[in-house]
Amino acid sequence: MSSSISFTEIPPPVSAEELIVxxxxxxxxxxxxxxxxxxxxxxxxxxxxxLGFDIYDSHFTAMRTYHATMLLMSTLERFSPNYVCDMxxxxxxxxxxxxxxxxLHVANIxxxxxxxxxxxxxxxVMNDKTPGLPFYQMIPKETIQYEGILSLLxxxxxxxxxxxxxxxTEGERFVQTVVPMFSQNGICFDFIIRIPTLTFVTxxxxxxxxxxxxxxxxxxxxxxxxxxxxxxxxxxxxRFFPFxxxxxxxxxxPKGKVWIRTAQVELTxxxxxxxxxMQIFPGAxxxxxxSSDLPHFHQFVESRKPSNTAGDGFIRDFWQNAFSCVFLHQxxxxxxGDICTEEEKLESLTAPFFExxxxxxxxxxxxxxxxxxxxxxxxxxxxxKYMGLVNGGRLKLQNIHPWQVHHSLRTVSFNNSAGDTVSFxxxxxxxxxxxxxxxxxxxxxxxxxxxxLDPEAPPDKVFTITEDAIIxxxxxxxxxxxxxxxxxCHPGFSKKVKEGxxxxxxxxxxxxxxxxxxxxxxxxxxxxxxxxxxxxxxxLCIPKRISYLTFGEPLGIILASFALxxxxxxxxxxxxxxxxxxxPIVKANxxxxxxxxxxxxxxxxxxxxxxxxxxxxxxCFFRQTAFGIIFSVAVSCVLAKTITVVLAFMATKPGSRMxxxxxxxxANTIVFCCSFVxxxxxxxxxxANPPFPGVDMHSLxxxxxxxxxxxxxxxxxxxLGYMGLLAFVSFTVAFFARRLPxxxxxxxxxxxxxxxxxxxxxxxxxSYLSTKGKxxxxxxxxxxxxxxxxxxGCIFSPKCYIILWRPELNxxxxxxxxxx
Length: 820
Prior knowledge:
Radius of gyration: 51 Å
Number of strands: 26
Largest sheet: 8 strands, mixed
Structural class: alpha/beta
Distance between the termini: 138 Å
Strand content: 5-15%
CATH superfamily of the largest domain: Rhodopsin 7-helix transmembrane proteins
CATH topology of the largest domain: Rhopdopsin 7-helix transmembrane proteins
Number of domains: 4
Shape: rod-shaped
Number of helices: 20
Strand order of the largest sheet: 5-4-6-7-8-15-16-17
């Protein structure tokens, strides 16, 4: 950060006070030095060759980055581009930069010289670099990181998130990439905030004002999950949030947020933020470049002191900034602040300032150094044409050109001192994964590993996390944070998106009747299978019961008992008529028709039993047709009786020609002809489309009904209709003959019986159609029994009364009723 340039005078040099120092980045330098030291001390790797390095600061600006890169291509300490006059300074590769824009600026120069560049931080813009010489990325491809963040959000069911990015090209690229990806997987965004970068000192006030608005929006959001993306130092900018809250008295917002950081966002601080609170960051989760503990690195760092590292040109500045002290100089008259004693302990520094364990970026630098070393070592042992061999195999580095290193770098593969394999894929990206880190800020530790992202693992093991190990922000009272626009719709409900809102904001509506939802947040309810039905809460499908009218249930017992009882009564009546067969009342109305009618009624009562029990082929085949034929015979007998009464009365008149029609022949003919028509209909029915056992899964919600399918519904109603026609004709004839002067005139009783018969069967049709399942069968059985009992009672009960209790009326004199 520097002063703005007005172009009215020569710009002053950047003063130390105008620089924003990030002490934590000093570890990058230590990792570089440690790796080079190990390689130079390893006799198996690059023997008789000493690696050296130059370090330049890019200041995160394009101008200084280009200048530093040109210095690398020049003689040491002399800016003469394109000329290398020092044989000791032979540049083989460049490692950097810390952020993608820096890497891109470096690449623009290195492409001219075809020099390999190893990038140790995510640099998606490098993929668009033209011309596109290969570069090597010491971290996995960034799409893996995005998929890891998505997996993290989906694991915790955080569907309502906020996004905070630095307003840079990379930040916009991140937004354009993750928004479609996350949206396709059910993640919605409450807001996307772009924080402006601070370039000039004069913009500080504007940044503070914008930061206060941003913090208010973040803290007021219902979303608990915040995805943060930016350069490596962006977390230092995010630390302004609580500071702004204290300054502006913005303290009415909940403080519980889960910050999800990408790998390039290190937990860093500027020097002046040393004593600032970290209250909004505990419980944060980040994807971190995989790193392992390197043997002896901790001791190497611990041993660093300004007094014993003469070649380290950075340690004194680091020490003063990190510990807020100053070193005494001979020309210092007055000392402001504490004096550095070198008794200060690096372990005492907080994680935003320094970490003793190797962080992700430093680990990438360490591996990058080793990758170059192994590539050079492979070149020294391959004996290719471009290799110059002197002194019995010693590598002559001054004869190696940077572009020749690419071939070895592409194929390099080795295990580092921590046991991790380092190799590149076909795109020059490191084949590795990420660690999932939980930031704690407790008294004894700062972070802990809670999972990993391994793209080489089986699909179900790519993303793993130990949720029980996570320590959340104290605001959440150690319960999993909830980050949704609308609380989950429980099973039994479905989502209805609110108009004008993101799809994550919805209402929960109950499932419609007949449908269920068995998981949370279902977009729509669905129907159960035919064999199941929804439970009361409409969140589970329950198997349907098998239902049919059985002899064992109360309804079946009652109907079967009623049928058998009526059968016995009918048999008793038949016995009475057989015993008193020679009495006038039995002989009066065609004794054979009476026997036929009683036998038909007997069979009617028995046919009702065919409707009870589990449907089978035989019972289904016969139940409707047997009932139709038997009832037609019974009604035909009633019709024949009625016609016989009418003809008998008409034949008694003097000179009547009806006497020749009176006799058994006419009655038998009526019974035969009327029954034959019904038999013909039933035969056609059985031949064309007979009844068969069927399963009704839809009529009743909770039952699967075993039934007899009529086969042809048309034939079924034809049989019923013909039977109704016979009953109507019988009723009509009997009605007109009911007042004939005959003591044993059956017409009046037949009228009542037919009236009851027709009433029963007229009410049967709507009742039959309105009932379902076994109750439909019960309605038909009841109609059979009721109509048959009506015939039995209305026609035969008066005669039995006379035969048994009024025998004096059962004589010939009563056959003729004389007028007074």
